[in-house]
Design a protein that fits this description.
Layout: H1 3-6, H2 10-18, H3 22-44, H4 47-63, H5 74-109, H6 115-134, H7 137-147, H8 153-160, H9 164-183
Helix pairs in contact: 2-3, 3-4, 3-5, 4-5, 6-9, 7-8, 7-9, 8-9
């Protein structure tokens, strides 16, 4: 980092960033990355989630830099972005857990103590696995990463080297195929 940037105030760095100065962005990143990561990790208790959220904070800062009014309280602004990122991640987890619980409940509804019903439940689980395995490869991979490994769409996109919208399309397609084929039974 250039000496000019290490001694610059947040307000000065932010103004330079708004003007498109990449070195100012790097200075902000160097100044606050570790602090934000520590805050995020304490709340998320998962290093990957914490890291991804902090990276998203800096991506948002950079992409929205022209729209943000001059901010004398840059760290507070970054903390606000971080807080919203963590809330979004918790919401994603809740939705995924509810969807998984609903699917699990649907499977369990078809099972009971009788041997015949246990066999039916096992067949249903096998049917679900068969349907998942019959999905196109990318669709199957996105679905498994989302619904069974609980990765965020952003993490899946990065892992699969595709866009987030493509990940979402794969998951929607997989859910549609699952519902359709399960209804046919």
């Amino acid at each position: 980092m250039k000496p000019l940037y290490t001694s610059a105030t947040d307000s000065d760095l932010f103004q330079l960033l708004k003007e498109g100065d990449i070195a100012a962005f790097e200075a902000i990143y160097d100044r606050y990355f570790i602090r934000l990561l520590n805050i995020s990790y304490k709340r998320m208790e998962n290093r990957e989630d914490a890291l991804e959220i902090v990276q998203d904070v800096f991506v948002r800062l950079y992409t929205k830099r022209a729209l943000i009014e001059n901010n004398n309280y840059l760290f507070a602004y970054l903390q606000t972005l971080l807080k919203h990122g963590m809330i979004d991640r918790f919401r994603q987890r809740m939705v995924q857990q509810k969807q998984y619980a609903a699917l699990k409940e649907q499977v369990q509804t078809h099972t009971s103590d009788t041997a015949d019903q246990q066999i039916d439940g096992k067949k249903l689980e096998e049917k679900i696995q068969y349907i998942i395995n019959s999905l196109p490869e990318k669709c199957k991979e996105a679905f498994i990463l989302s619904r069974m490994q609980y990765l965020s769409h952003q993490m899946i996109a990065t892992k699969m080297s595709i866009s987030v919208s493509t990940v979402e399309k794969h998951i929607v397609k997989a859910l549609h195929v699952l519902r359709k084929q399960l209804k046919e039974e």
